[in-house]
Design a protein that fits this description.
- It is found in: Cell envelope.
- Keywords: Coiled coil, Signal, Transport.
- Pfam families: SBP_bac_8 (PF13416).
- InterPro entries: Bact_solute-bd_prot1, SBP, TAT_signal.
- With about 550 residues, the chain is an alpha/beta fold.
- It folds into 2 domains: about 45-220 and about 390-465, D-Maltodextrin-Binding Protein, domain 2 (3-Layer(aba) Sandwich); about 225-385 and about 495-555, 3-Layer(aba) Sandwich (D-Maltodextrin-Binding Protein, domain 2), CATH 3.40.190.
- It contains 21 helices and 22 strands.
- The strands form 8 sheets. A 5-stranded mixed β-sheet has the order 5-4-6-17-9. It has a 4-stranded mixed β-sheet with strand order 11-14-10-15. A 3-stranded mixed β-sheet has the order 2-1-22.
- α4 packs across α5 (about 170-175), α11 (about 270-275) packs across α12 and α20 runs antiparallel to α21.
- The longest helix has 30 residues, at about 525-555.
- About 50% of the residues are buried.
């Protein structure tokens, strides 16, 4: 869950934050897909470095389009120019689809369009495959996913976001979905050039049960949570960008005037975690890291407690907006009050850099949102921890024929086309004139485009992460350069890139910590309550889980870097 967010991730949030380095790591890290039963703790498909080379697709960088800003330190590639429709490249010169029908079940946020809409029709014609969408409500997708995977009626393709890989879902993935290795491993992927250009890190995450089962949506390994601030207000008031936790507190007190209905910030817990160098909480395996020969979980560290204490002090000082104090920030869109100047800083997904800019461009031309560089708590450089390089996957039914699998790969080869190609525009914008228009090099969706061209084809596979905003190129530049600076101080924890599923008996072990964190920073609980919770976590299974992870580490080596 991202901070200050609604209960479910938005399409814009996860799509806009998909960015990954274009330079893949040859050979990669050791891979593992572990699936433990309720009492056995057994693992399926431990994949050594040697075996991974046999499984992973060959990486062939795309040279169809050259980005304005190349990837660096794990950043996305960036495009800062206007869009030239006449100059769009072709990355799929001939249809690879053979005219078959493919059913795809995928999460969908919003109202699904009619089945025979112009977007679906044009995409199917471009690909040469009749894709039939079984869109499901993204907010309750986990329930539908569990039911479908437990049944005998599984669609040809099923999209599974990482946040839904809980309970029995991982073992179902291994049992229900096909090995794509015969079609994609090694040089075989070259039949699908856009898939060959997907970075190796993302394919590493697509190995489940020792087989290449997933088609990935690549993402940057740099943290996607940015401390946003009102740059226009900072400049007007003469505020300096803080470079330490003490400087942030001093600024927050200076900027807060409750009588004038202005507070410094919302809940800054996630920025605190970064400032104090706390291991990632986005995925359980990323919360572990070997330090001085000992395997430590994020909640056991002093940095974790220090980050919570500093965030608590912000609330206690009265510099946090009352909505966040009451917990409303997790249920309401912070945009309007941020635009109104009720608070000046908040942390959220990087996608809001563009979306807030676009929202206010006409009605509030002086408004300027910008991303603050993360700082070390003591004023030095921060220690940031890498996220995994792919978090959403499309899987093909194990019972699918070769013809169906190849039609699915034909779909993926089009949807993974890079920015600046005809296939990318078709996938992301639809049909010119019907779904979008272009004025001064800026594509704008029509009302029909906003109905039809939603999160469908992009869910099958995506290109190496890209940031491009022809309407606000300065934002695209700012986003990529922010990732590059933060990537320079980002480390990879011990289990980076490994596809790991914890044994079922540990599934709920850490479930209550996020609520306890929020209670502590708001003053409802004390740091001592967290220390007790950590002690209970250890005795209830945390120490045994550590032993389980230690065995993985001993057998496969560390991905730390």
């Amino acid at each position: 869950m991202t901070p200050n967010a609604a209960s479910g991730p938005s399409r814009r949030s996860f799509l806009a934050s998909t960015a990954v380095a274009t330079a893949a790591v040859a050979g990669g890290v050791p891979l593992l897909s572990a699936c433990g039963g309720s009492d056995g703790g057994s693992r399926d498909g431990t994949t050594s470095k040697k075996d991974a080379k046999k499984i992973l697709p060959a990486y062939v960088a795309s040279n169809v389009v050259t980005p304005d800003i190349p990837s660096k330190n794990g950043s996305a590639v960036g495009f800062t120019g206007k869009l030239d429709l006449a100059g769009l490249k072709t990355s799929v010169p001939k249809k690879l689809g053979k005219g078959g029908e493919v059913t795809v079940m995928s999460p969908f946020w919003g109202s699904p369009p009619k089945e025979d809409n112009a977007y679906y029709t044009s995409m199917n014609d471009l690909i040469g495959v009749d894709v039939v969408w079984q869109n499901q409500d993204g907010n309750t997708y986990d329930q539908k996913l569990g039911a479908v995977l437990a049944s005998s009626e599984v669609p040809d393709v099923v999209v599974v976001p990482g946040w839904n890989m809980t309970g029995k879902i991982p073992s179902a993935i291994i049992g229900k979905f096909a090995d794509l290795g015969p079609y994609l491993s090694g040089d075989a992927v070259k039949e699908y050039p856009n898939l060959a250009a997907i970075p190796t890190d993302a394919w590493q995450r697509s190995i489940f049960g020792g087989k290449l089962r997933g088609l990935p949506m690549p993402s940057s390994y740099v943290t996607g949570i940015v401390p946003f601030y009102r740059q226009d207000v900072f400049e007007k008031e003469g505020y300096e960008i803080p470079r330490s936790c003490d400087e942030f507190m001093a600024l927050a007190k200076d900027a807060t005037n409750a009588r004038a209905k202005r507070w410094a910030c919302l809940d800054m817990k996630w920025t605190a975690f970064n400032a104090f160098g706390v291991l990632s909480g986005n995925e359980k395996s990323l919360g572990w890291n070997e330090t001085d020969g000992k395997l430590i979980y994020r909640i056991e560290t002093e940095e974790y407690l220090e980050a919570l204490e500093w965030t608590r002090k912000l609330f206690a000082a009265g510099v946090v907006h009352p909505d966040a104090k009451l917990g409303k920030s997790n249920a309401a869109d912070p945009g309007p009050k941020f635009a109104a100047g009720e608070f000046l800083i908040y942390n959220q997904d990087m996608s809001q850099w563009w979306s807030r800019t676009a929202e206010q461009a006409t009605q509030n031309p002086e408004f300027r949102i910008w991303g603050m560089d993360l700082f070390g708590h003591d004023g030095g450089a921060p220690t940031l921890w890498a996220q995994n390089p792919a978090s959403i996957f499309a899987f093909v039914n194990k019972k699918a024929s070769e013809a169906v699998i190849r039609d699915v790969l034909a779909v993926a080869n089009v949807t993974a086309a890079p920015y600046g190609t005809k296939e990318y525009m078709a996938t992301n914008y639809g049909v010119e004139g019907t779904h979008y228009t272009v004025k001064d090099g800026v594509p704008t969706k029509t009302d029909q485009g906003n109905i039809d061209v939603m999160n469908a084809y992009v869910m099958v596979a995506s290109p190496a992460a890209t940031i491009a905003h022809p309407d606000f190129p300065e934002v695209a530049k700012g986003q990529v350069e922010w990732q590059q600076r933060m990537g320079a101080v980002t480390k990879k924890p011990s289990f980076y890139g490994m596809q790991i599923t914890e044994p079922a008996r540990y599934t709920n072990l850490s479930n209550d910590f996020e609520q306890l964190e929020d209670d502590i920073v708001r003053g409802r609980k004390k740091i001592a309550d967290m220390q007790q919770a950590v002690s209970d976590w250890k005795s209830k299974g945390g120490d045994k889980l550590r032993d389980w992870y230690r065995k993985i580490l001993d057998e496969n080596g560390s991905a730390a870097g």
